[in-house]
Design goal:
Elements (H helix, E strand, L loop, with lengths): L2 E4 L15 H12 L3 E5 L17 E4 L4 E4 L2 E5 L4 H13 L3 E6 L3 E3 L1 H8 L17 E3 L10 E8 L2 H11 L3 E8 L5 E7 L4 H12 L6 E5 L5 H6 L2 E4 L5 H4 L4 E2 L7 H8 L5
Helix pairs in contact: 1-8
Length: 271
């Protein structure tokens, strides 16, 4: 039996088609029927899993390792303290840096991000559909008394402002440049140095009594780096980040060319 960890965006979910390829559904089904366990391993928060709700899986590593669920049991959570988060948000705004908070119940967009992606011409921008999901809200809906935040993303058009934020918080947080929007908008994924996808995978293995020698990871972006490096088999999508590909044991086809299916078939995991 193998423990298979699959990223969502760019791995399972094709944003060009805004759908999961049929071959990926089939691959997951066949892998589980063959006796393997399959897990979602994503940078998304646990409230943003609607895109994979029709896939049967054995657990979830979400928020890039800050939330871990085995079967129906939450076995690990690591929230950012509210006082610390409030300071970060204030510092970001002072430096012309906007943000999106990623919590247990919802996603909360600062006004600049909301305007960029959802208002006016923003409706045509890549990412517009993502931010229209039912769990995405404005900051006016954020209440720290009944919500916890696992991680956040920052957005800016000023490299100088970004450098100030990284300088101030770089000791305690990782900054991963995951997406660049149209124009000069920069998006950075920010998470505690305590967490990454590989650490979340270790939590899953502790729960099931498994070992890293039986792990397989499939991903495409730099927040997949640790899991690609640490799992026994690290597979990168053909459409994946070039730096990530340098760490791969195997590079599969693009997501639109049955990449997940080909990857699992290549390693004999489909029965």
């Amino acid at each position: 039996m193998k423990y298979i960890f699959l990223d969502i965006d760019g791995t399972l979910f094709d944003h060009k088609e805004y759908a999961i390829p049929e071959s990926a559904y089939r691959a997951v089904d066949l892998a589980r029927k063959a006796g393997n366990k399959v897990f979602i391993c994503t940078g998304r928060s646990c409230c943003l899993l609607d895109h994979v709700k029709d896939i049967s899986f054995d657990g979830v590593v979400a928020a890039a390792g800050a939330y871990v669920q085995a079967q129906d049991e939450v076995i690990y959570e690591d929230a950012i303290p509210d006082e610390e988060l409030q300071e970060i948000m204030e510092f970001c705004v002072k430096n012309d840096v906007s943000y999106v908070l990623e919590g247990k119940k919802g996603i909360y967009m600062h006004s600049m991000v909301r305007k960029y992606f959802l208002e006016g011409e923003g409706r045509k921008r890549p990412g517009h559909e993502f931010f229209k999901q039912k769990t995405v809200h404005g900051m006016e809906d954020y209440n720290p008394e009944n919500e916890i935040i696992y991680k956040f993303c920052i957005y800016t058009m000023r490299e100088e402002g970004l450098r100030e934020v990284e300088k101030r918080y770089g000791r305690d947080y990782q900054f991963i440049r995951s997406i660049s929007g149209e124009g000069s908008l920069i998006c950075i994924e920010v998470m505690s140095v305590r967490n990454n996808k590989a650490k979340g995978i270790h939590k899953i293995l502790e729960y099931y009594g498994g070992g890293m020698e039986d792990t397989v990871a499939v991903g495409d972006s730099l927040n997949d780096l640790e899991m690609i490096q640490e799992c026994a088999v690290g597979i990168v999508m053909g459409n994946g980040n070039e730096k990530l590909k340098a760490c791969a044991d195997y590079i599969t086809a693009d997501i639109g060319e049955d990449g997940v299916y080909q990857a699992l078939e290549h390693y004999g995991l489909l029965g």
